[in-house]
Amino acid sequence: MFEVIAVGTVAVDPALADALAEELVLASKLLADLAYDLGADEAVLRRHMASLQAIDQVTQTQLAVAAALRQLDRTGELLAGVTLEDMKTRLGRAMAAVS
Asked: What's the number of CA atoms in the CB half-sphere (13 Å) around residue 16?
């Protein structure tokens, strides 16, 4: 038997939350590797610096979501672990709307 955690109106199996978090971490690594490879070419780096920085923002967001998924059973600590201020604000508003 497994424990189910209620989040808002959705119940999430902790094993599923952990598996989803791992998928996000893997996707983040793939994107980070892509950005590194693209950034190694000076011409690409000069022309696409903003886009490469956006890829970094996406990977940070994915890692923050993964960390939040791993903390679902401690919802009081969920937002404390989010380090991206914009994302923290959006999640706070969403959680307040559910409460």
From this structure: 8
Cβ atoms of 45 and 58 closer than 8 Å: no
Task: Note whether 77 and 10 are within 8 A (CB).
Answer: no
Q: Which residue has the tokens 């998924």?
A: 69
99 burial via Cβ count (<10 Å: 0-12, 13-18, 19+): exposed
93 pLDDT band (50/70/90 cuts)? confident
pLDDT averaged over every residue in the chain? 81
Of 71 and 33, the structure prediction assigns the larger pLDDT to 33
Q: What is the largest CA-CA distance in the chain?
A: 55
Instruction: Pick left, alpha or beta for residue 24 (phi over 0 → left; psi -120 to 50 → alpha; otherwise beta).
Output: alpha
The whole model's pTM is what? 0.70
